[in-house]
Amino acid sequence: MSFILNIETATKNCSVSIAEKGKTIVCSELADEGYSHAEKLHVFIEEVIAKAGITVQDLAAIAVSQGPGSYTGLRIGVSAAKGLCYALNIPLIAIDTLQTLASQANVSDGKIIPMLDARRMEVYSAVFNSDMTIERGIEAEIIDENSFKNYTDKIYFVGDCAEKCKTVLTAANFVFLEEVKYPSAQAMSKISFDKYQKSDTVDVAYFEPYYLKDFMIAPSKKQ
To answer: Which of 11, 129, 159, 198 is the most exposed place for a label (fewest CB within 10 A)?
Structure first.
């Protein structure tokens, strides 16, 4: 059996799932404003393993969100994943956080732009086609009224930036899917299994999260 443990801690959502052959069997998650990842993560891991009726020895691999996202959240998730992989001698799979978030948009047309809140009007973003191929890679950018104006297709925004961004991103082809707020380990299952089948893994000893700290600097206004 190809059981994979998926761990997503890049945002306020502490999320863990067990998947078999790319399909989620069980998932435990909590989006907490207080970032309770340190307290919840190992509890959730034990919980999903028990609910799936397996043991850690049944795991074929562990997948973890690689970022971008919260520095502390990513460190907690990656540390737990690496420790388990090392102890069990199984491969580690790194999953792009924004890909996981974008895959939660159930659309068949246009483009999907996942955005994660950074600070002020800054976001982490990428652009995917509706078939989940990458249109534009990950960037840290400042959102203003001219952002994404070069896209004429329907644009579906997902992530935790709707509240601050929808007042400036007002083009007629822009749609905010506000129900898709945080990446979830449920959505990692197919991605991690595809990578597992291709042996697309990372080095347990040397892997580090992708923090993406280089923000654009807004020019100061002339007096």
So the answer is: 198
Is the bond into 68 cis (omega within 30 degrees of 0)? yes
Instruction: Give yes or no for a contact between 207 and 110, defined as CB atoms under 8 angstroms apart.
Output: no
17-49: b (≥16 Cβ within 10 Å) or e = bbbbebebbbbbbeeeeebebeebbeebbebbb
Contact 173, 157 (CB under 8 A): no
CB 199 within 8 A of CB 2: no
Q: List all residues 6 or more positions away from 93 whose beta carbon is below 8 Å from its beta carbon.
A: 4, 61, 62, 63, 64, 192, 195, 196, 200, 201, 202
- Residue with structure tokens 């996202």? 69
Handedness of CA 119, 121, 122, 128 (dihedral sign): positive
What is residue 35's predicted lDDT score, i.e. its pLDDT? 72
Residues of the chain with pLDDT under 50: 214-223
Residue position matching structure tokens 């049944």: 58
User: From the CA atom positions of the chain, what is the Rg in Å?
Assistant: 18
**Whole-angstrom Cα distance, residue 223 to residue 113?**
35
pLDDT at 218: 43
The contacts of residue 202 (CB under 8 Å, 6+ apart) are 92, 93, 94
